[in-house]
Structures are given as structure tokens and as C-alpha cells.
Amino acid sequence: xxxxxxxxxxxxxxxxxxxxxxxxxxxxxxxxxxxxxxxxxxxxxxxxxxxxxxxxxxxxxxxxxxxxxxxxxxxxxxxxxxxxxxxxxxxxxxxxxxxxxxxxxxxxxxxxxxxxxxxxxxxxxxxxxxxxxxxxxxxxxxxxxxxxxxxxxxxxxxxxxxxxxxxxxxxxxxxxxxxxxxxxxxxxxx
Length: 190
Hints:
Layout: H1 2-27, H2 34-51, H3 53-61, E1 63-64, E2 67-68, H4 69-83, H5 88-92, H6 119-136, H7 141-152, H8 166-184
Antiparallel strand pairs: 1-2
């Protein structure tokens, strides 16, 4: 029964404690370790619950305003595990000391392959293809200006300052777009 109460309490308060851990980790230059610190603290709390259940339940039941003594106990554990050099978390996950005598060329480091596609690179390549097709077409200055305004500069025709009607602008834009598509697909005669 006590385990269920404490587990429910942990699940309700987890996000608040995680924010607290992130705050203190950011000040201790441990930005990526907030979740690990909090989980380690909660694991220690659950171990303590097994050995001293009455003490943890007493902390849970004693209220201070809208919080319980257990809240303050956990917050203190989080802060100590982050700030204290002798804390259980810091002791368990202490980095291996490195000095100037280590030659990293001889250390086998595992490089994770970058399996994600380079989306921005693909977009850039496609823009170059469109730009090359656009430049190779024999278009009037007006058609070049209208297409560049809409496609390359990402403007709206509602912001167009010329005397042309929006319908005419869209017609010009769509015709140039179709020419570029056919040029890219190899259907153009030019």
C-alpha cells in the first residue's frame, strides 16, 4: 500500500522535480544529466522506502503549506547530488581524469554514423537545380521579376507594388513554374 502511495506521488511530482534538477544541473555544467540525477535520487528514495518505510510515510504525511516534507527531502537530495563532489551520484558517475599526456589519436573512440538525411542540404541542392533551370530559360524581364519575387524571395503577390492584377501575376508565375518543371524533367525543347 505504501509503495502505491509513494509511486503515485512520484508520478504526480516528477515534472516539477525534473525542472528543479534541470535548473541546478545547468548551473553545475551538467546540462544533459538532469534526468539521470533525478532518477538516481528516486531510486535511492525507493531503496530507503524498503528499509525505512515509516520514515518516508511520515515525511509524506507531514504537510508544509501546499507541499509535504517529502517534497523538501527530495529537492534537497537532488540539490546535494548535483552540487556536492562527494554525493552518491557524482561518486558513481565520476568521469575518468584526463591530463595533457593523453594522445587521443591512439584512443579508440566510437563515432556514431550519421544516418539521418541532410534535409537542408537536399533543399539547397534542389534550389540550385531550380535556379539553374530558371537561369537557362529565355524569359522576359517581367516574368523573371515576378517569379523571383514569389519563389526565391518568398514574397506574396498581395505585397506586389506594380500595376499588375494578382490574376496576371499568378498566371505568369504558374507558366514560368511549369516551364521550369518541364526543363528539370527533360521535357523542354529549349
